[in-house]
Amino acid sequence: MIDGFEYSPSAFRKLSRSRKKELMVQWFHEHFEDPAVRLPYESAEGGYQWIWGGPYSADDEIQSEFSDVASFELMQEAVDEVQSDGLFDWAPVAESQSDDNASFESSAFDLEDFVGTRRDSAAASKGDLDQLKSEMLAQLAELKEQLQLGLHGYGMIGHNRPPGPIEDSPVSAQDATEALNEIAKIEAEAEKPEPAIDTVNESVGFLRRMAGSIAVWLRDRANAQIDAAITLGVGGGVALYAQRLLALLGTATESVWAWLHALPWPF
Q1: Per residue in 212-239, pLDDT tens?
Q2: Which one-letter DSSP state was computed for residue 125?
Q3: CA nearest to 266, candidates 109, 136, 126, 123
Q4: Cβ burial 121-131 (10 Å sphere, 16+ → b, else e)
Q5: Nearest-angstrom CA–CA distance, 123 and 261
Q6: Per the CB 3.0–4.6 Å rule, which of 7, 137, 189, 204 could disulfide with 12?
Q7: What is the C-alpha end-to-end distance of the chain, expressed in Å?
Q8: What pairs with residue 231 in β-bridges?
Q9: Angle between helical axes of 58-66 and 17-31 (0-180°, round to 10)
Q10: Which residues pair with residue 92 across a beta bridge?
Q11: What is the mean pLDDT of residues 73-97?
């Protein structure tokens, strides 16, 4: 869709060369923007913090979107126009960020669909299953460490300093503690001969919802142009901490999903 209009492949191919180029440039600017518009900037960490993915290039994105309906030469002309101001690294626009954040709101998977697909799946070997379990536990351990870092760094627990700026933190002390409890449930189920899928699913659902909340927190802070380097007390900025926590929530929950799919049926 470009400027609210949906072009079919055949309709796009019939457009004039100049119109195709114009629409490709317009499409790119509808989906990507100068990182200076919304991204936090931290000179100590190397510049812009790509909290919604990226940096993206016009060359890659335009070819990915239009390679079936436009020639390589014409796509390169559109890329050259996009980059004519000397900007080569791009961030997704706010609407794209909002769509990405929404994907975290659901739990990791649909339990009924999972049960249905597992009946028809070949069981993983014991070696593969052990490796997936090991990788999952390692990812969960990293996530726990990051959650505990935030608890201590913000003065939530563990020392006599005054509490940190809780109203500016991406995760409340209560939610961080609950997340640690949910991780413990997953770890406990992983050690059982027959893990309770519904228990694991509920725990992963909590972690995914937390990820969604953090993604919204990051988006709102960037939109309000809040400095990413507010002191955390552990050598990094609040936004950088939130970015790392969001990434770990994603990789940890995906590793749980992979482990569950490898389990033999029935449990």
Answers
A1: 888 877 777 765 544 444 433 333 467 7
A2: P
A3: 123
A4: eeebeeeeeee
A5: 9
A6: 7
A7: 45
A8: 237
A9: 120
A10: 32
A11: 87
Burial code (b: 16+ CB inside 10 Å, e: under 16) for 225-259 equals eeebbbebeeebbbbbbbbebbbbbbebbebbbeb
Parallel/antiparallel/unpaired status of strands 91-92 and 32-33: antiparallel
User: Alpha-carbon distance 57 to 75, whole Å?
Assistant: 13
Q: Cβ atoms within 10 A of the Cβ of 9, count? A: 10
State both tokens at 17: 């060369």
* Gyration radius of the chain's alpha carbons: 22
**Mapping DSSP to helix (H, G, I), strand (E, B) and coil, where does residue 33 land?**
strand
Q: pLDDT (tens digit, 9 = 90+) per residue, 122-165?
A: 556 788 888 999 999 999 999 999 998 877 764 443 334 444 44
241 Cβ neighbours under 8 A, 6+ residues apart: 146, 149, 150, 153, 170, 232, 234
> Locate tokens 């100590």: which residue?
44
Contacts of residue 197, Cβ cutoff 8 Å, sequence gap at least 6: 111, 114, 115, 260, 267
